[in-house]
Amino acid sequence: MSRLIDKKLSRRRFIGTSTCALAGVGLASQGRVLRALATSEEPLSGKLGDNRDVFTACGMCVNKCGVIARVRDGRIYKLDPNPEYLKSRGMLCARGNAGLNQVYDPDRLKYPLIRVGERGEGKWRRASWEEALDLVAKKMNEIAEKHTRAGVMFASTEGTFQEHFFLQMAECFGSPNTVRHPTLCLSSNIQGFSATFGTYPSADILNSDYIIMAGANRSEALLTPDSIDQLKGDGGRRKLVYLDPRFTKTAAKADEWYPIKPGTDMAFVLAMIHVIIGEGLYAKDFVATTTVGFDELAAHVQQYSPEWAEQHCQIAAADIRRVAREFAKAAPKALFYPGRRSSFADDDVQLRRAMAIVNAIVGSWDTEGGLVPNSVIPLSKHDYLAPWYDDVPERIDKDSAVFLSEKDGSWTAMRDRILAADPYAIKGMMVYKQNLVMSVPNRAKTLKMMKQMDFICTIDICMSDTAWLSDVVLPEATYLERQDPLESLSGVVPVVAFRQPCVEAMFESKPCLWIMQNLAKRLGSEIAETFDFTMDEHIHHQVSKNPQILKDLKKKGVYYLKVEPSYGLTQGKRLKTKSGKIELYSENYASKGLDPMPVFRPHAEVPPGKFRLLVGRNAYFTHGTTANNAFLHELMPENSLWLNPQAAQKLGLRNGQPVKVKSAVGEGVLRLEVTDKIRPDCVYMAHGFGVLSKGQSLIYGRGACDAALIEDALEPISGNVAMHQTFVDVSPA
Ligand SMILES: Nc1nc2c(c(=O)[nH]1)N[C@H]1C(S)=C(S)[C@@H](COP(=O)(O)OP(=O)(O)OC[C@H]3O[C@@H](n4cnc5c(=O)[nH]c(N)nc54)[C@H](O)[C@@H]3O)O[C@H]1N2
Ligand SMILES: Nc1nc2c(c(=O)[nH]1)N[C@H]1C(S)=C(S)[C@@H](COP(=O)(O)OP(=O)(O)OC[C@H]3O[C@@H](n4cnc5c(=O)[nH]c(N)nc54)[C@H](O)[C@@H]3O)O[C@H]1N2
Ligand code: SF4
Ligand SMILES: [Mo]
Hints:
The structure is a single chain. The chain is about 30% helix and about 15% strand. The chain is an alpha/beta fold. A seven-stranded mixed beta sheet has the order 5-4-17-16-15-6-7. A six-stranded mixed beta sheet has the order 22-24-23-28-21-25. It has a four-stranded parallel beta sheet with strand order 11-10-9-13. Strand 26 (about 715) and strand 27 form a beta hairpin. The radius of gyration is 25 Å and the shape is globular. The relative contact order is 0.17. Molybdenum atom binds near residues 185 and 341.
């Protein structure tokens, strides 16, 4: 395995570009007594700062919307949307507004903490950074000595500005065992679309006339700009067809909603392809010039009539046929939306392949109102020379999926192999900005894995469940208190996002770069050298080929090259597939023993008396850790179990009563919400409750945890989890 990154280290140039410093911030925060977590109460005394408006980027979810922070007397008193910021279209959602509570939250992490009681007992003592980092370095080295450097794993989330430095630490420390959130999120989607188009595209929603969304709840699970564009008035021009076993806010906004039987979307899509090809409605020239495998596809889908599909997905054949015709007629200004969290069932890659193919055959590719390959504004990369270690084995989850991402891994496969110490032991965990206890299905297994660890260190901003079960907890400064690297956000219209501190970091919280630099110093000069730069230098290096980027960012908080989308950029060019064309038939898949075209195989039926558990988000919360934000908590103080009235009547259960939900791997108690917004064979609960951590004081003891109930099924092509294959019993509590 090659661990040597030899991209010609350009440190001299790197330093040389950093002539001017970034706008200094140096504001102090106004005093306020905060509730401390198992540390001494300490009032925060601060100086009054001046009044300023600061451009920055929201950090409450993946979208990084443009923000103007209104700082008055040294405190952030309000966050407003940046109207110049194209991606978020001048919007800041409820969570974005509530972001300022991260800074002033009494529950936030304030000091480095070292565990003193049993793991999970919640007994901590406040430590200095020196002591905490000495301990982390000592433990990392001890584990490396005993189990090789692969014995320490590194878990983090995707798409956070500072994550670069954490991943750099993993590489320089010498562990191949990084695991990241795509394996719980969109890795199967990326795989399915990339196998077809060579890339995972964006959707030109604003200019589309016909959109089909399957399990993509854009009105609640917000993705910018898609969520805003989808809601934008269009004079009735655009039609939205929505498939979801639940009546979500997106269903409420849709022209047609179909409560599809979960796990059967592929039948719906294959039947659409059957109709479009069978009735000659496909884009003939486009298919002839731009795709491979059309004849094989035409023969393959003959078996998939709408009448056949109706038996599986429970959507009337006449509707499938009509939707297919309307879709083809509106094309190429039509799109079957790729979606985001693709972790539905264990055939998810093939479902996403089918979705990509239906777009391809109507010519919805690189065209106005269709799927559009992403553009990106290049920034210079920070190169470094990672130390070389001879004795490091390969990833523990190697070969657990056909196309496993080297960087992202597979959370559930990795966890299984750690539990079995197969083929070697992992005894240390470094966690940055991930709450795996909540986000990886089958919490009992996660807890068992953590129990097996000799050492766990978590870097967070609050006492998440993962932090609660760690040995050392390190407080990062929140996104409103730190300077982050620039981030280039790809899309139909790409932008560069900018995050600068609005107020001084409170208590002893520090940014990730500082933490990594100071840990690196304790791990040896070779690693420390790779971190020998300042954030200023880093940012100036990022824009060294185009200094205008930073000038614009300082002036208006966003940088973009164009405001209108460009189309046809791939026309006449080779795509990044094996054939260089859109692959309706995948030779690559065939060569790996996979279905070269999507084949529908029915999933297990819900056993009598049980329900399928569905996972999904709401507009108030981001994943599992914002339910404790006081502003958002008001909107939903605990979660409830959605159950259809028919099912409730059969079980003799009434609205509001506490119920026990039980799966093969766990159980929970929460309040029943009888609602016809869900199919009678499914139940649903919001994510983020039923926490273990008493450090989440507003929600501790409230609701139930979906991760405790979900069984871990693996999507075998991408290594993603399959989240909707769990059946539960519901009974009075
Ligand atoms: N049961 C269930 N599981 C799921 C999902 C679901 O809906 N239900 N969704 C899946 C999906 S799509 C995804 S993307 C994953 C996401 O799951 P994760 O990758 O675990 O991400 P989050 O749950 O957002 O956890 C982020 C953690 O970072 C902390 N944090 C926030 N800001 C900062 C910061 O600035 N610095 C640091 N150091 N920490 C910070 C938060 O407090 C939190 O503990 O979960 C997946 N798992
Ligand atoms: N407010 C908010 N916005 C977010 C996030 C957040 O946490 N909060 N997280 C961001 C992230 S990381 C992601 S990945 C995206 C997720 O964005 P989405 O993938 O759109 O969000 P989810 O709500 O997880 O899932 C979508 C829907 O799938 C439905 N569903 C379940 N099974 C099936 C099925 O078999 N077929 C069909 N057709 N539908 C099914 C569920 O009922 C749910 O309503 O949201 C992003 N935006
Ligand atoms: S969608 Fe909301 S939470 Fe996410 S970045 Fe934008 S404003 Fe922040
Ligand atoms: Mo996600």
